[in-house]
Protein backbone atom coordinates (compact mmCIF):
# COMPACT_ATOMS: atom_id res chain seq x y z
CA UNK A 1 0.00 0.00 0.00
CA UNK A 2 2.81 2.38 0.84
CA UNK A 3 4.60 1.83 -2.47
CA UNK A 4 1.29 2.44 -4.22
CA UNK A 5 0.95 5.86 -2.56
CA UNK A 6 4.34 7.04 -3.88
CA UNK A 7 4.63 4.80 -6.92
CA UNK A 8 6.88 6.14 -9.68
CA UNK A 9 8.54 8.66 -7.34
CA UNK A 10 11.62 8.70 -5.13
CA UNK A 11 11.22 9.22 -1.39
CA UNK A 12 13.29 12.35 -0.64
CA UNK A 13 12.40 13.28 2.96
CA UNK A 14 11.31 11.56 6.18
CA UNK A 15 10.24 13.01 9.51
CA UNK A 16 9.10 11.28 12.72
CA UNK A 17 6.49 12.41 15.19
CA UNK A 18 7.75 10.19 17.99
CA UNK A 19 4.94 11.07 20.40
CA UNK A 20 2.38 9.08 18.41
CA UNK A 21 4.70 6.93 16.26
CA UNK A 22 3.78 8.76 13.08
CA UNK A 23 6.19 9.17 10.16
CA UNK A 24 5.76 11.80 7.43
CA UNK A 25 7.11 11.06 3.96
CA UNK A 26 7.86 13.40 1.06
CA UNK A 27 8.77 12.41 -2.48
CA UNK A 28 10.29 13.80 -5.66
CA UNK A 29 6.85 14.62 -7.07
CA UNK A 30 5.89 16.86 -4.14
CA UNK A 31 3.48 14.47 -2.42
CA UNK A 32 3.51 14.33 1.39
CA UNK A 33 1.85 11.48 3.26
CA UNK A 34 2.00 9.92 6.68
CA UNK A 35 1.57 6.51 8.18
CA UNK A 36 0.96 5.61 11.78
CA UNK A 37 2.73 2.71 13.43
CA UNK A 38 1.76 0.89 16.60
CA UNK A 39 1.66 -2.46 18.32
CA UNK A 40 -1.06 -5.06 18.67
CA UNK A 41 -1.31 -7.54 21.54
CA UNK A 42 -1.20 -11.17 20.48
CA UNK A 43 -2.26 -12.81 23.72
CA UNK A 44 0.51 -14.70 25.46
CA UNK A 45 2.72 -14.60 22.40
CA UNK A 46 3.56 -10.91 22.88
CA UNK A 47 2.98 -7.95 20.58
CA UNK A 48 3.40 -7.30 16.88
CA UNK A 49 4.36 -4.12 15.05
CA UNK A 50 1.40 -2.79 13.07
CA UNK A 51 1.38 -0.21 10.26
CA UNK A 52 -1.91 1.57 9.64
CA UNK A 53 -3.09 2.73 6.19
CA UNK A 54 -1.20 5.58 4.54
CA UNK A 55 -2.90 8.98 4.30
CA UNK A 56 -1.98 11.81 1.94
CA UNK A 57 -1.39 15.14 3.69
CA UNK A 58 -0.80 17.42 0.72
CA UNK A 59 0.94 17.76 -2.63
CA UNK A 60 3.24 20.76 -3.09
CA UNK A 61 4.53 22.31 -6.29
CA UNK A 62 7.86 20.46 -6.55
CA UNK A 63 10.21 17.95 -4.96
CA UNK A 64 10.14 17.80 -1.15
CA UNK A 65 13.60 18.71 0.15
CA UNK A 66 13.07 18.52 3.94
CA UNK A 67 10.26 17.89 6.42
CA UNK A 68 9.92 19.02 10.03
CA UNK A 69 7.26 18.43 12.67
CA UNK A 70 6.61 20.30 15.91
CA UNK A 71 3.55 20.67 18.15
CA UNK A 72 0.98 19.61 15.57
CA UNK A 73 2.48 21.52 12.64
CA UNK A 74 4.27 20.09 9.65
CA UNK A 75 6.96 22.11 7.85
CA UNK A 76 7.47 21.25 4.18
CA UNK A 77 10.41 22.68 2.24
CA UNK A 78 10.18 22.23 -1.52
CA UNK A 79 12.39 23.44 -4.37
CA UNK A 80 10.49 26.74 -4.54
CA UNK A 81 8.88 27.49 -1.14
CA UNK A 82 8.34 26.53 2.48
CA UNK A 83 4.85 25.54 3.62
CA UNK A 84 3.27 25.13 7.03
CA UNK A 85 0.49 22.65 7.69
CA UNK A 86 -1.69 22.44 10.78
CA UNK A 87 -2.20 18.68 10.73
CA UNK A 88 -5.13 18.80 13.16
CA UNK A 89 -7.14 21.58 11.48
CA UNK A 90 -5.89 20.68 7.98
CA UNK A 91 -4.89 24.27 7.21
CA UNK A 92 -1.98 25.21 4.94
CA UNK A 93 -0.08 28.44 4.36
CA UNK A 94 3.20 29.64 2.88
CA UNK A 95 6.23 30.93 4.76
CA UNK A 96 7.21 34.29 3.26
CA UNK A 97 6.34 35.59 -0.20
CA UNK A 98 9.53 35.19 -2.23
CA UNK A 99 10.15 32.01 -4.18
CA UNK A 100 13.50 30.29 -4.68
CA UNK A 101 14.87 27.69 -7.06
CA UNK A 102 16.93 24.82 -5.67
CA UNK A 103 17.39 22.50 -2.71
CA UNK A 104 17.04 24.55 0.47
CA UNK A 105 16.21 23.11 3.87
CA UNK A 106 14.02 24.29 6.74
CA UNK A 107 13.51 23.30 10.37
CA UNK A 108 11.72 24.14 13.60
CA UNK A 109 13.66 25.30 16.64
CA UNK A 110 11.91 24.98 20.05
CA UNK A 111 12.38 27.85 22.51
CA UNK A 112 13.45 25.62 25.37
CA UNK A 113 16.03 27.64 27.29
CA UNK A 114 16.37 30.76 29.39
CA UNK A 115 13.84 33.58 29.18
CA UNK A 116 12.40 32.19 25.94
CA UNK A 117 11.35 28.89 27.50
CA UNK A 118 7.70 28.15 26.77
CA UNK A 119 7.52 30.48 23.77
CA UNK A 120 6.30 29.07 20.41
CA UNK A 121 9.03 27.46 18.28
CA UNK A 122 10.77 29.45 15.56
CA UNK A 123 11.24 28.42 11.94
CA UNK A 124 14.47 28.70 9.98
CA UNK A 125 14.33 28.48 6.18
CA UNK A 126 17.38 28.49 3.91
CA UNK A 127 17.52 31.06 1.12
CA UNK A 128 19.91 31.66 -1.81
CA UNK A 129 23.21 33.45 -1.22
CA UNK A 130 24.03 31.95 2.22
CA UNK A 131 20.91 33.54 3.73
CA UNK A 132 18.48 32.07 6.26
CA UNK A 133 15.00 33.33 7.10
CA UNK A 134 13.89 33.38 10.73
CA UNK A 135 10.10 33.09 10.97
CA UNK A 136 7.43 32.79 13.65
CA UNK A 137 5.46 29.61 14.35
CA UNK A 138 2.72 31.09 12.15
CA UNK A 139 5.06 31.47 9.17
CA UNK A 140 5.64 35.24 9.37
CA UNK A 141 9.21 36.13 8.37
CA UNK A 142 10.82 38.04 11.24
CA UNK A 143 14.34 38.60 9.90
CA UNK A 144 16.90 37.50 7.32
CA UNK A 145 20.33 36.31 8.46
CA UNK A 146 23.17 36.83 5.98
CA UNK A 147 26.26 34.62 6.32
CA UNK A 148 27.97 35.15 2.96
CA UNK A 149 30.58 37.64 4.18
CA UNK A 150 31.06 35.83 7.50
CA UNK A 151 32.01 32.66 5.62
CA UNK A 152 35.16 34.38 4.35
CA UNK A 153 36.85 33.09 7.52
CA UNK A 154 39.15 30.06 7.14
CA UNK A 155 37.72 26.62 8.01
CA UNK A 156 38.55 25.03 11.35
CA UNK A 157 40.54 21.79 11.14
CA UNK A 158 39.25 18.37 12.09
CA UNK A 159 41.17 16.92 15.01
CA UNK A 160 41.61 13.24 14.26
CA UNK A 161 43.99 10.52 15.43
CA UNK A 162 44.73 9.52 11.85
CA UNK A 163 46.14 12.82 10.56
CA UNK A 164 47.84 15.93 11.88
CA UNK A 165 45.53 18.97 12.02
CA UNK A 166 45.99 21.32 9.10
CA UNK A 167 45.00 24.94 9.60
CA UNK A 168 45.55 27.69 7.05
CA UNK A 169 44.78 31.11 8.59
CA UNK A 170 44.49 32.83 5.20
CA UNK A 171 41.08 34.45 4.72
CA UNK A 172 38.90 33.02 1.96
CA UNK A 173 36.54 34.78 -0.41
CA UNK A 174 32.89 35.16 0.72
CA UNK A 175 30.87 32.00 0.11
CA UNK A 176 27.47 31.86 -1.55
CA UNK A 177 26.17 28.50 -0.36
CA UNK A 178 22.83 26.72 -0.76
CA UNK A 179 22.01 24.96 2.51
CA UNK A 180 20.07 21.78 1.58
CA UNK A 181 19.23 20.73 5.17
CA UNK A 182 18.91 22.60 8.47
CA UNK A 183 18.99 21.15 11.99
CA UNK A 184 18.78 22.89 15.36
CA UNK A 185 21.48 22.08 17.90
CA UNK A 186 22.35 23.40 21.39
CA UNK A 187 25.63 22.99 23.27
CA UNK A 188 26.10 23.11 27.04
CA UNK A 189 28.55 26.02 26.93
CA UNK A 190 26.49 27.90 24.35
CA UNK A 191 22.87 28.63 25.25
CA UNK A 192 22.16 30.19 21.88
CA UNK A 193 20.15 28.55 19.13
CA UNK A 194 22.60 27.03 16.69
CA UNK A 195 21.81 25.84 13.18
CA UNK A 196 23.74 22.99 11.63
CA UNK A 197 23.82 22.52 7.87
CA UNK A 198 26.10 20.92 5.32
CA UNK A 199 26.95 20.51 1.67
CA UNK A 200 28.76 17.63 -0.02
CA UNK A 201 32.09 19.20 0.99
CA UNK A 202 31.61 21.07 4.30
CA UNK A 203 29.72 21.31 7.60
CA UNK A 204 28.54 24.67 8.95
CA UNK A 205 27.17 25.73 12.34
CA UNK A 206 25.63 29.20 12.71
CA UNK A 207 24.30 31.19 15.65
CA UNK A 208 21.57 33.38 14.12
CA UNK A 209 20.81 35.25 17.36
CA UNK A 210 24.17 37.00 17.37
CA UNK A 211 25.02 36.60 13.69
CA UNK A 212 28.06 34.36 14.12
CA UNK A 213 29.63 31.47 12.27
CA UNK A 214 30.32 29.15 15.18
CA UNK A 215 32.13 26.63 13.02
CA UNK A 216 32.71 25.53 9.48
CA UNK A 217 35.00 22.73 8.43
CA UNK A 218 35.74 20.88 5.21
CA UNK A 219 34.63 17.24 4.94
CA UNK A 220 34.50 15.59 1.54
CA UNK A 221 31.79 13.38 0.11
CA UNK A 222 28.98 14.11 2.58
CA UNK A 223 25.57 12.68 1.72
CA UNK A 224 23.67 13.01 5.00
CA UNK A 225 24.24 13.94 8.65
CA UNK A 226 22.33 12.76 11.73
CA UNK A 227 22.56 14.83 14.93
CA UNK A 228 22.38 13.57 18.51
CA UNK A 229 23.18 16.26 21.09
CA UNK A 230 26.78 17.26 20.26
CA UNK A 231 27.50 14.14 18.20
CA UNK A 232 27.32 14.02 14.40
CA UNK A 233 27.05 10.81 12.38
CA UNK A 234 28.03 11.46 8.77
CA UNK A 235 27.17 9.27 5.80
CA UNK A 236 29.62 9.61 2.91
CA UNK A 237 29.07 8.86 -0.77
CA UNK A 238 31.36 5.85 -0.51
CA UNK A 239 29.04 4.29 2.08
CA UNK A 240 31.41 5.05 4.96
CA UNK A 241 29.92 6.29 8.25
CA UNK A 242 32.04 8.66 10.34
CA UNK A 243 31.46 10.00 13.85
CA UNK A 244 32.27 13.58 14.83
CA UNK A 245 32.18 14.98 18.36
CA UNK A 246 31.67 18.74 18.62
CA UNK A 247 33.95 19.85 21.44
CA UNK A 248 35.20 23.10 22.87
CA UNK A 249 38.96 23.56 22.54
CA UNK A 250 39.42 22.88 26.27
CA UNK A 251 37.43 19.63 26.17
CA UNK A 252 39.23 18.50 23.04
CA UNK A 253 42.63 19.01 24.68
CA UNK A 254 41.45 17.34 27.88
CA UNK A 255 40.41 14.25 25.92
CA UNK A 256 43.70 14.13 24.00
CA UNK A 257 45.68 14.39 27.25
CA UNK A 258 43.82 11.40 28.66
CA UNK A 259 44.69 9.48 25.51
CA UNK A 260 48.36 10.47 25.94
CA UNK A 261 48.44 11.70 22.34
CA UNK A 262 51.26 14.09 23.15
CA UNK A 263 52.16 15.43 19.70
CA UNK A 264 48.55 15.97 18.67
CA UNK A 265 47.72 17.60 22.02
CA UNK A 266 50.65 20.00 21.77
CA UNK A 267 49.69 20.96 18.22
CA UNK A 268 46.08 21.66 19.26
CA UNK A 269 47.24 23.67 22.30
CA UNK A 270 49.31 25.94 20.07
CA UNK A 271 46.55 26.18 17.48
CA UNK A 272 43.87 27.19 20.02
CA UNK A 273 46.14 28.92 22.52
CA UNK A 274 43.82 31.89 23.06
CA UNK A 275 41.15 29.47 24.35
CA UNK A 276 43.35 27.50 26.76
CA UNK A 277 45.32 30.43 28.19
CA UNK A 278 42.21 32.01 29.73
CA UNK A 279 41.63 31.54 33.45
CA UNK A 280 38.41 29.59 32.95
CA UNK A 281 40.38 26.77 31.28
CA UNK A 282 42.44 26.07 34.42
CA UNK A 283 39.85 23.72 35.90
CA UNK A 284 40.17 21.27 33.00
CA UNK A 285 43.73 22.13 31.90
CA UNK A 286 45.87 23.17 34.89
CA UNK A 287 49.37 24.48 34.27
CA UNK A 288 51.04 21.35 35.63
CA UNK A 289 49.33 19.27 32.94
CA UNK A 290 50.72 21.58 30.27
CA UNK A 291 54.19 21.30 31.82
CA UNK A 292 53.83 17.51 31.85
CA UNK A 293 52.78 17.62 28.20
CA UNK A 294 55.93 19.59 27.33
CA UNK A 295 58.10 17.03 29.13
CA UNK A 296 56.72 14.25 26.92
CA UNK A 297 58.00 15.88 23.72
CA UNK A 298 61.42 14.96 22.37
CA UNK A 299 63.82 17.92 22.19
CA UNK A 300 65.71 16.22 19.37
CA UNK A 301 62.75 15.90 17.00
CA UNK A 302 60.15 18.43 18.19
CA UNK A 303 62.21 21.41 19.28
CA UNK A 304 60.07 23.94 17.38
CA UNK A 305 56.83 22.56 18.85
CA UNK A 306 58.33 22.66 22.35
CA UNK A 307 59.23 26.32 21.83
CA UNK A 308 55.69 27.12 20.71
CA UNK A 309 54.23 25.30 23.70
CA UNK A 310 56.56 27.14 26.10
CA UNK A 311 55.30 30.42 24.65
CA UNK A 312 51.72 29.30 25.28
CA UNK A 313 52.51 28.36 28.88
CA UNK A 314 53.95 31.83 29.55
CA UNK A 315 50.59 33.34 28.55
CA UNK A 316 48.50 31.08 30.80
CA UNK A 317 46.28 32.99 33.21
CA UNK A 318 45.40 31.78 36.73
CA UNK A 319 41.96 30.46 37.63
CA UNK A 320 39.14 32.91 36.84
CA UNK A 321 38.91 35.81 39.26
CA UNK A 322 35.17 35.13 39.37
CA UNK A 323 35.90 31.64 40.68
CA UNK A 324 38.35 33.05 43.20
CA UNK A 325 35.79 35.56 44.44
CA UNK A 326 33.24 32.78 44.86
CA UNK A 327 35.69 30.88 47.02
CA UNK A 328 36.63 33.92 49.08
CA UNK A 329 32.97 34.78 49.62
CA UNK A 330 32.45 31.51 51.47
CA UNK A 331 32.74 32.42 55.11
CA UNK A 332 35.20 30.87 57.52
CA UNK A 333 32.51 28.78 59.22
CA UNK A 334 31.80 26.92 55.97
CA UNK A 335 33.76 24.40 53.92
CA UNK A 336 33.14 23.42 50.31
CA UNK A 337 34.07 21.11 47.48
CA UNK A 338 33.78 21.51 43.72
CA UNK A 339 31.57 19.17 41.71
CA UNK A 340 32.71 17.90 38.31
CA UNK A 341 30.27 20.28 36.64
CA UNK A 342 31.93 23.29 38.32
CA UNK A 343 29.28 23.96 40.99
CA UNK A 344 30.54 24.83 44.47
CA UNK A 345 28.86 22.64 47.09
CA UNK A 346 28.88 24.50 50.41
CA UNK A 347 29.03 22.36 53.55
CA UNK A 348 28.05 24.42 56.56
CA UNK A 349 29.36 23.58 60.00
CA UNK A 350 26.93 22.68 62.75
CA UNK A 351 24.90 25.62 64.01
CA UNK A 352 25.75 27.98 61.17
CA UNK A 353 22.85 27.01 58.93
CA UNK A 354 19.49 25.37 59.47
CA UNK A 355 19.05 21.72 58.47
CA UNK A 356 16.32 22.74 56.05
CA UNK A 357 18.54 25.26 54.25
CA UNK A 358 21.41 22.80 54.17
CA UNK A 359 19.27 20.04 52.68
CA UNK A 360 17.90 22.39 50.03
CA UNK A 361 21.38 23.53 49.00
CA UNK A 362 22.79 20.02 48.72
CA UNK A 363 19.77 18.71 46.81
CA UNK A 364 20.04 21.60 44.35
CA UNK A 365 23.75 20.95 43.81
CA UNK A 366 23.24 17.24 43.23
CA UNK A 367 20.34 17.79 40.83
CA UNK A 368 22.36 20.34 38.86
CA UNK A 369 25.29 17.92 38.64
CA UNK A 370 23.05 15.13 37.37
CA UNK A 371 21.37 17.44 34.86
CA UNK A 372 24.66 18.68 33.45
CA UNK A 373 26.02 15.15 33.13
CA UNK A 374 23.44 14.59 30.40
CA UNK A 375 25.22 17.18 28.26
CA UNK A 376 28.76 15.92 28.78
CA UNK A 377 30.97 16.62 25.78
CA UNK A 378 33.34 13.75 26.59
CA UNK A 379 32.47 10.13 25.94
CA UNK A 380 33.74 7.24 28.04
CA UNK A 381 36.96 5.87 26.63
CA UNK A 382 35.50 2.48 25.78
CA UNK A 383 32.71 4.11 23.75
CA UNK A 384 35.01 5.90 21.33
CA UNK A 385 35.91 4.36 18.00
CA UNK A 386 39.56 5.30 17.47
CA UNK A 387 39.17 5.03 13.70
CA UNK A 388 35.97 7.00 13.20
CA UNK A 389 35.74 9.44 16.10
CA UNK A 390 36.99 12.92 15.30
CA UNK A 391 36.37 16.16 17.11
CA UNK A 392 35.96 19.74 15.96
CA UNK A 393 37.22 22.32 18.44
CA UNK A 394 34.42 24.87 18.54
CA UNK A 395 33.54 28.24 20.04
CA UNK A 396 36.89 29.89 19.30
CA UNK A 397 38.89 30.10 16.11
CA UNK A 398 42.58 29.20 16.15
CA UNK A 399 45.26 31.78 15.63
TrEMBL record:
It comes from the Eukaryota. InterPro entries: Beta-prop_HPS5-like, HPS5. GO terms for cellular component: cytoplasm. Residues 4-236 form the HPS5-like beta-propeller domain. One of its GO terms (biological process) is developmental pigmentation. This is HPS5 biogenesis of lysosomal organelles complex 2 subunit 2. It comes from Amphilophus citrinellus. The lineage of its organism: Eukaryota, Metazoa, Chordata, Craniata, Vertebrata.
Amino acid sequence: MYCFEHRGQTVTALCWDTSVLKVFVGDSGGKVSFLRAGSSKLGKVGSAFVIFPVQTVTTVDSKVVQLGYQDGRLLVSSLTRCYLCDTEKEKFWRVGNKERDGEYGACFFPQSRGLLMGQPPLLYCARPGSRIWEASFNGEVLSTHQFKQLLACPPLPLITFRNEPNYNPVQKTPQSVAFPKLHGIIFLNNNYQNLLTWTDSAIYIFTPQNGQVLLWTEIKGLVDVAVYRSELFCLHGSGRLSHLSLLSAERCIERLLRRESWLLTAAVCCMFQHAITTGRARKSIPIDRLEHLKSQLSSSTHLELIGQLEEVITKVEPLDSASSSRRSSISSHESFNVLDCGIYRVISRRGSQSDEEMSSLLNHSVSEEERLKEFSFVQDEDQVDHEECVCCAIRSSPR
